[in-house]
Please model this.
Amino acid sequence: MTDTIPRTLVDSWGRTHNNLRISVTDRCNIRCFYCMPAEDVQFLPRQELLTFEEIERVVRIGVTLGINKVRLTGGEPLVRRDLPVLVQKLASVPGIIDIGLTTNGILLAEQARSLRDAGLKRLNISLDALDPEVFRKVTRRDGYEKVIEGIAAAREAGFSPIKLNAVSVRGLTEDQIVPFGQLARESDTIVRFIEFMPLDADSQWQREKVLFASEILDRLTSAFGPLRPIVTDLNDARPTFTDQSTSSHAEAESHTPLLPLARASRAPAQDFEFVDGRGRIGLIASVSQPFCATCNRFRLTADGKLRNCLFSLEETDIRPLLRSAAKDEEIAQAMLDNIAAKREGHEINTARFLQPDRPMYSIGG
Model:
């Protein structure tokens, strides 16, 4: 590539983007209501999906523009055949320092070791409930036991800590919060509670169904005592969800100042640890406390569309460039233009918000 191309993906608001989330398929083996329809899903034809070689090329070009982190998503990425081959390809790209994967875990028991050996660094497992019946209400499929097996296999393969992503929905998952908190206290698991977002295929999202991060924190505090935010920068301007120093619990007397523990300040989750040091949880408050101002992520869909925000209404189609004689410079410019057009924020909390036409499974989680 020529030296005339800017080397960083910076939008008009000054945010630098180094984190690319890549959907490898829109197919999935469960049917979570917040993500896709229960039946009759129309998936992309195989020939419309980017090949591993095309994905690798995008990443190699992206590295010249500042990308150094990649996360593979879906749909369910483990239904894509030979996924460890792609992981190995991306792990060999000079400049990539971190490769993560988000999975529902159902196929993980068979693939955890090969993924680790291929170079996968981090693993997030989507699990919205520790109760099999609630799991089935959310996913509209069986498979809870396979997810638990997958978590165990991931530990055996050397993934640690393991992060669980739990979408929290009012009227459905409140009673799962404390069991998840207990799991975080008893294992190397970091549970990340995610506010229910308007990305469902049936467009049935309602704000009243969002179980807010502050409520989740209150429930955990009531059960286990105060928690303290984990920060790397004491000047981090992100607001906290509640002031635990006023907790009515006796343990609040021992509430300590914020500790400079490891957290990437631009990460979507605000992490907390229990005040006795046993266990950590994360809160992703996409609705109640958006983190758009520090966003450093953008997306590549399985069919080759660049999206500069999960809630984008516009996309940049680079598949024709990848399948023609287009030079790397043209693809790089498409990436630069896509990021330059990024909006200030997703505007969920305004009357201007419009839900994207693509549901979550089609975008990539």
Summary: The mean pLDDT is 88.
